[in-house]
Amino acid sequence: MHTFTVSATNTSAAWVAACRALDVKANPRREGFHTVVRIADATAEDPALRAELERVRAAAGYQPIETVANTVFPARLAALCPDPAQLAERYQQIYSRLTKMDTGNRRGTYFGRIVAYPGQDGPVDQLEYLVKQLRQQAAGKGPMSAAYEVGLAHPGDGDPEPQEEASFAVPVHLAGKDHSVRGFPCLSHCSFQMDRDRTLHAVALYRSHYMLDRAYGNYLGLGRLLAYLAAAAGLRPGTLTVMAGHAQIEDHITKVRPLLQDTPSLLTA
């Protein structure tokens, strides 16, 4: 089984490092299992790398990176809505249009699942709830327990010890409805952890990750979601860790290989 763990300072460097880890002679299928990508600041990018990758992606028929990132977090709309409840409300108002405008979104978007999760009694706004819990914890004298996970059962019985870090989860896979073997949603869940210094970290689990089509935009969208949550709760944004059950580089590796070979500075920045 081919696998890897990489760490980088920004999304551009992380994407390059992950692709390099897959694009090796010993891995002719350019795929990996249980891969881990850790990014210190997933909102940061290398403009030159981003521009060249956009050009290559457009020539290969892929969507713009910003389109992919917006399925995870709508940055432009969020800039107009610093209040999570307002952001959720406005997104829900346009959600049906978004799913019809792009065939890739016909089954929904990740952010749509966060702000309008199909609950038993109607849509559930997990974003506002999550921010409220983070604010309450941040205002306390010490970390709260992990008893406030959103939409997922607590892994243990009873209340954890007070010294444990807090943990929150945003589910995007809907049991009983998401039966497709491929396609939405590849993102299974996101969890958020708060350090004692009030830094918010995130970990995202993908069942599958396509490195050319989705990975870069997903890293960016998740980084923006983390930054928004941290700002709304009065916290500092921290590290994003993305795990994939299966990661692979698609057929256009020859078109992006020059980017992987000519950017050594990204990995040492």
Distance between the termini: 30 Å
Mean pLDDT: 81
Strand content: 15-25%
How can the largest sheet be summarized? 7 strands, mixed
Radius of gyration: 18 Å
Q: Sketch the topology as an H/E string, one letter per element.
A: EHEHHHHHEEHEEEEHEHH
Number of strands: 9
- What helical percentage do the residues reach? 40-55%
CATH uppermost class: Alpha Beta
Classify the secondary structure makeup into a structural class.
alpha/beta
CATH topology heading = Thymidylate Synthase, Chain A
Specify the number of helices: 10
Overall geometry comes to globular
CATH architecture: 2-Layer Sandwich
Unreliable segments of 5+ consecutive residues: 145-165, 178-184
Q: Count the domains.
A: 1
Give a structural overview.
The protein is an alpha/beta fold and 269 residues long. It has one domain (5-264): Thymidylate Synthase, Chain A (2-Layer Sandwich), CATH 3.30.572. It contains 10 helices and 9 strands. The strands form 2 sheets. Strands 1, 2, 5, 6, 7, 8 and 9 form a 7-stranded mixed sheet that branches. The chain has a two-stranded antiparallel ribbon with strand order 3-4. Helix 1 (11-22) runs antiparallel to helix 8 (211-233) and helix 3 crosses helix 8 (211-233). The longest helix has 23 residues, at 211-233. The chain starts with a strand and ends with a helix.
Short key terms for the protein model shown above:
single chain, 269 residues, alpha/beta, Thymidylate Synthase, Chain A, seven-stranded mixed beta sheet, two-stranded antiparallel ribbon, 10 helices, globular
